[in-house]
Amino acid sequence: MSSQIKETSIQISGMTCAACANRIEKGLNKMEGVEEATVNLALEKSVIKYDSEKLNNQDFERKIQDLGYDVVKEKKEFAITGMTCAACATRIEKGLNKMDGVSMANVNLALESATVEYDPSEASPMDIIQRVEKLGYGAIIKEDKMESVNFRQKEIQKQKNTFIFSVIFSFPLLWAMVSHFSFTSFIYMPDFLMNPWVQMAFATPCNF
User: Fold this and answer.
1) How far apart are CA 109 and CA 124, in angstroms?
2) Are the C-beta atoms of 104 and 98 separated by less than 8 Å?
3) Measured distance CA(99)–CA(104) in Å, rounded
4) At 48, which helix (H) or strand (E)?
5) Cα 89 to Cα 113: distance, rounded to the nearest angstrom
6) Do both 60 and 83 map to the same domain?
7) The pTM is what?
8) Pair 32, 83 in one domain
9) Are residues 198 and 185 in the same domain?
10) Which residue among 142, 161, 194 closes a domain?
11) Tens digit of pLDDT for each residue in 135-187?
12) 172 and 164 in contact (C-beta within 8 Å)?
């Protein structure tokens, strides 16, 4: 099988001097499948060219941790839509785990969510969302979803208030209109409701 050379970058924490960077660089270069690894102390970052058939980001993370340093990672939860069975969850999970920069992805069908741990220098939440969408599903960051839900609830309440306001101001106009029919002439109607200025005063707030 022919090798597939890829390049990845990993953010590293815990380095204090050039010796630290050299130690990590040597350790990474000794791994079978690594073509070239460089570590930049100033940027606290390593760039690795490797055979993707033999290694992945998780292997590099374990190596760096074994050497006494740590890898900078972020974790986010995404709400997933469109899943109908366990096969859907498995497909998304495999697709996310194959992404450059993603060290761990777990998809929960019951909760309709995905937990993704990733290197922010290699991947972003938008990259993850786009990967899920390419697989045929939908995704949104859970914090964003909560903001969206709150916004929707506020909008619904606003519409309810507007409706109640409109009902109150429209009722006198409806009262005046209905009382004009011959079969409803028995309904009492105050004379001031026939005043066009009064009717305009009730109608204007509703229009705006």
Assistant:
1) 23
2) no
3) 10
4) strand 45-51
5) 9
6) no
7) 0.51
8) no
9) yes
10) 142
11) 999 988 887 555 545 545 665 777 888 888 888 888 887 777 777 776 766 67
12) no
Identify the domain boundary among 71, 106, 127.
71
Which tokens hold the place of 17? 């001097």
Read off the pLDDT of residues 42-51 as tens digits, 9 standing for 90 and up: 888 899 999 8
How far is 5 from 53, CA to CA, in rounded Å? 8
Domain region containing 166: 146-207
Strands (E), 112-184: 113-118, 138-141
Q: Residue 96: what pLDDT?
A: 94
Distance CA 155, CA 103 (A): 39
Query: Nearest Cα to 107, choosing from 80, 128, 134, 127?
Result: 80
Instruction: Please count the structural domains in the chain.
Output: 3
Q: In sequence order, what are the residues at sequence separation of 6 or more whose Cβ sits closer than 8 angstroms to the Cβ of residue 28?
A: 34, 37, 39, 46, 48, 60, 63, 64
Residue 57's CATH number: 3.30.70.100
Average pLDDT of every residue of the chain? 84
How sure is the predictor about 58, in pLDDT bands with cuts at 50, 70 and 90?
Answer: confident
Round to whole Å and give the CA distance between 164 and 162. 6
